[in-house]
Amino acid sequence: MTSDKVVTRFHDDDDGYLAWLEQHPSGFVSTSDKQKAMIHAVSCFYLTLKDPVLSYTANPKMCSQFGGELERWGKEAGLKVTRCSHCNPSWKPQLKNRWFGELPAYPPGSWFPDRATLAASGVHRPTMAGISGSEGDGADAIVLSGGYEDDIDLGDVIVYTGHGGNDLATGKQIADQTMTRQNLALVVSCQEGLPVRVTRGARHKSDLSPPTGYRYDGLYRVDAFWIEVGKSGFDICRFRLERISDDNALAPGHPLEAASVDAPEGVASPKRQMVAVQRIVRTSAVVQYVKALHDNHCQVCGMRLETGLRPYSEAAHIRPLGQPHNGPDVVSNILCLCPNDHVLFDLGGIVVSTAFAVISVPKNQVIAELRRHAAHPIDLQALVYHRSLFDHA
Fold first, then answer.
1. Distance of CA 24 to CAs 21, 43, 48, 65, Å?
2. DSSP state of 333
3. What does the pLDDT look like over 92-112, one tens digit per residue?
4. What is the pLDDT of residue 268?
5. What phi, psi does 103 have (nearest 5°)?
6. Helix, strand, or coil (residue 58)
7. How many domains does the chain have?
8. Do residue 138 and residue 225 come from a single domain?
9. Within a domain: residue 271?
10. 203-257: per-residue pLDDT in tens?
């Protein structure tokens, strides 16, 4: 038996094969020859027919909980994929069957000689694209392979360049990128907090890259995205990814199926554990000063949340802290916002002009005037910087 925890292969292993069928009554099995693969439901009686001489698994059987995985496997193997006409197996479309988080068979540090082997493992399915994902599901994995000149790799923090517009031969950008397709998939992962598997290739220009092949380096979280002008003068989509600590990793992973999938069971008694994570130390006094000036009223909508014990508001940094923005933690770089407007501001739903007009980016129209206080200076260059990340109308 060999397994990537998504597709399992049984060859000359009847006991393992029959045990798998019993444990996965709603699963799928592929029988194949040199030209075609036929997919059956586990309940199909053909699967337990046995030649008096041969074993069940004298010819290899490929097994998976997901029919779409077997379909993908067959196509990648160059086989004609069909479905058994007797049991007529059905499954949800392949794009609704994406695996987020760790694959237990491939822990961080797992090495692959080439993209085909990496794809077959399930760690990063596409054999060419650097982003594995879709606009509907989100992105489950990326590869750093030296294809884009603007990538920044700091180890625990990666500033990743999106998909499209580059010359494959030189890595130079020759056209603008847009927040669509795979780039939008990374936006979805940011908004939904989905973990992203990161693999580094030998051609990626970094001391962290493997000398040959590809190495899976663990889970990262997308914590910001924006658009900026790259080294070659074209718009590029940028994504800041931060490594999830080993102690806080979302492992093992989970498959994302269609919206009708049953709700996850969760954990009745979540455990507590010590986790060491490097974070930027923010100056609490600066934040509290800005909140007090505005009496916890949102500078965009004016809302003041009353929690029953004390009012609540949030501090939003106009020019973000940390790499690659390196914004300062000072009064003039902070706004007092309600949670809703904080999210809209951080994710580019709203921007503020130097005339203090609050602009809805999707609608491309002014929706409010930023509320100000005489003792609260606002850095106009920071507003320009923030707007440049999102507003390209």
1. 5, 10, 14, 7
2. G
3. 544 345 788 888 888 999 999
4. 61
5. -100, 115
6. coil
7. 3
8. yes
9. no
10. 998 899 999 999 999 999 999 899 999 999 999 999 999 999 654 444 445 555 4
